[in-house]
What does this fold into?
Amino acid sequence: MSVTRREKDSLGYIEVPAEALYGAQTARAAENFPISGMRAHPLLIRAIGMVKRAAAEANRELGTVDTRRADAIIEAAQEVIGGRWNDEFAVDVFQAGAGVSFHMNANEVIANRANQILGGALGEYAEVHPNDHVNYGQSTNDVFPAAMRLATLLALETLYPEMDGMAAAFARKGAEFDQVMKSGRTHMQDAVPIRLGQELAAYGVAFSKGAQALQQAGDALRELGLGGTAVGTGLNTHPEFRVKAIANLARISGQRLAPAEDLRWAMQSQAPMARVSGELRNLALEAIRISNDLRLLSSGPNTGFNEIHLPPLQPGSSIMPGKVNPVMAELAAMVGFQVVGNDTAVALAIQAGQLELNVMMPAMAYNVLQSTTILANMLRVLRERCVEGIAANVERCRQYAESTIALATALNPYIGYARAAELVKESVASGESIVSLARRKKLLSEEQIAEILDPERMTEGRPPKTGS
It folds into this structure.
């Protein structure tokens, strides 16, 4: 049987593991919410440590917490920031509304550690109390949203480089395959020619545009309601606390942060989280779309498109020898599906706030941070293990470019749409190429055929030199 200590909170006594840095309220939450087995994201723990350090520095400067206690709280909070006590955050991600349990978990860990620093014993709180000192001038209702927004900003800093890296990787492939001609496809049917490099370069642009949109959305998180306490009125906090604490937090985190224009709005509305979640969803949708294209373009090898080769990473079947699957593209799609689902959960949480507080913030924090993390990890492995190793099947691409029935589109200005359509029907029925039919029917001179039906010219938007 494990050794415990007895602690008391407003509900009475409860047993707490003897060596735990957390206390009674955390122990109750651990008992109340045995839901998923998942714990707070490390960046959320780091962010709340930053908030607590910033608050303690402000309270020390304002004289609302004496220097000796404040210094101990600052030292303990810095250890939380450094990840030393992550295992002490014992509350499930699905917990009491507003993140009260997670917040008190942080207050208790920091208070107990500060008491140790000052020579006190765990669970006594004689020198530093979780509520009276660590939480002075604060409330869950302004601390948790501040920590959630900061954690999201920190998480996005890990995603942006992966988006930029993917954009650059596709741009390089675009340049590498710029001269590889192939058939375009619309409605999954033959379309006019396009260069493989053009196709892949456009994928890079999608990630570049996505990064720009996500950064714009992320900027909305920089307004914080810290200092609003319970309902956004600033009850029980020093009038200067708000500005000083947020300035401290900006310095500690390295993020551009500012006091919210309206503290009530900052507490009632979590629309900035909705914007970020929505852009993560949009990124996921683009990743799903592009991963599906990679699967199609590499399908085969004998019965599919087989226009590109993806790096072989592992055997693809337990029964079919030699089969290799596009596993990284499959992974990308599945991660994308999860992110889309996470966004739905966030959207429902965003609209579920009532009056002065949205209590569904733990769900927002969990889903947005998970989405950011798995997208960053997915983009990294997709780039390293798939995109950077794409090879072109030049001959197959050229074959498609020369055999697409949509070559007839270039004939519209010379023989008219209706006659070109008849040519397409005949090509489909007979199997004879558009070029061969145009030559046999003497629709164009050899010089015109070479110029007008040149697939490369069509991909450049360059008009033919020859006349009609």
Summary: The first helix runs from residue 24 to 32.
